[in-house]
Amino acid sequence: MSARRCECGYAAADALHLQDHLQESFTPPDAVAPDGRVHDEGAEPGRCLCGFGGSSADDLDQHFLAVFTPPDHVGRDGRRHAVPARL
Length: 87
Ligand SMILES: [Zn+2]
Ligand SMILES: [Zn+2]
Hints:
The chain has about 90 residues and is mostly helical. Helix content is about 30%, strand content about 5%.
């Protein structure tokens, strides 16, 4: 299994670490997404504060990534973070 690499140069050991990296790059400290709502894991495991409830932790991660990723993929550090589509 090969490492996954972000456009910023970050190399993750696996897809999970890469997802963590993207989330850290795009999620602001106040967890307010571009849609103006707060998205964070609530008191109920697997459920977002916006009401989204996934069937697994992975679903929730995908949700966070979807709401926090800006259209231009530029993270809080001013760099572009994106992963080449899976082949
Ligand atoms: Zn949400
Ligand atoms: Zn990156």
